[in-house]
Amino acid sequence: MTGPAPECEALTEGLRGVRARTGLSLAALAARTPYSKSSWERYLNGKKPVPRQAVEMLCAIAREPAGRLLALWELADAEWSGRAGSARPQVPAAAAPLPGTAPVDAGVPPRARRRLLAAGAGSAVAAATAAAVLAAVGGGGPRPANLAAPALDPVPGCHGKACDGKDPARMFCGLPGRADSLGPEHRTASGAGVEIRYSQVCTAGWGRVWHAKVGDAVEISAPGARPRRAVIRAAADTTRYCFTPMIGDPAKTGLLLCFLPGAGTGRECFRS
């Protein structure tokens, strides 16, 4: 019987390591994410393909950069979907390394090595992804001293006041490693979770809500700034994080997040 692909095994091992560092049980993970306890058990034991958003959420909870695991997820997803086996490129064993990168050699499964070399031809982004995957599975050797670490994430789309009213996801301000919670997470009377988020990279703040119901809303405000609100309008929004638009360049201590239940039972507000 054929076992899991090495790419999938490497991702599963990485997920288990991050989960262990959170110190959370499967039930606690389920309470803080839209995924059930049984789903997390399957993801962490390689029984079921893990959604990309679940990888991002786990890294965010652990307060760890997600770049390494997301690079592994891309390779594992290619295996799960069958894309990896649809066209195996033939690459000479002694293929020259990409310009400005170290040779791809020991420690990487042959299938992953061929895919990285072929996909990376002429692409700096693919070279950066290959470097992240090699580090994740222990291959590639040390970096040359004069080779700067590549930027894996997109450049932020705004900064300061220019972020006012904009979507933190579309502006790449809320990527794992770019945003932190201001103060603790809060659980509302209806069971929804809310927190204030702030990105030092973008110098902007916003509100985040999860486990909300259709009709609920969350609003963030700051002195001298226009309040920004997000409303849960569809059932799909109840199973994922939802965000308010950003307030640009706020005072960190002046942010106020209010949860407005659709049932009209009164708002609940929390300060940063």
Main attributes?
globular; six-stranded antiparallel β-sheet; 8 helices; alpha+beta; 434 Repressor (Amino-terminal Domain); Immunoglobulin-like; 2 domains; 10 strands; 272 residues; four-stranded antiparallel β-sheet
User: What is the architecture of the largest domain at the second tier of CATH?
Assistant: Orthogonal Bundle
Number of domains: 2
Biggest β-sheet, characterized?
6 strands, antiparallel
CATH topology type of the largest domain: 434 Repressor (Amino-terminal Domain)
Roughly what percent helix? 25-40%
Number of strands: 10
Q: Could you list the spans in which at least 5 consecutive residues all have pLDDT below 50?
A: 87-110, 113-152
User: Would you state the CATH class of the largest domain?
Assistant: Mainly Alpha
N to C succession of SSEs = HHHHHHHHEEEEEEEEEE
Class by SSE composition: alpha+beta
Instruction: Let me know the average pLDDT.
Output: 77
Give the termini distance in whole angstroms: 54 Å
Cα-based radius of gyration, to the nearest Å: 21 Å
Global shape? globular
Strand content: 5-15%
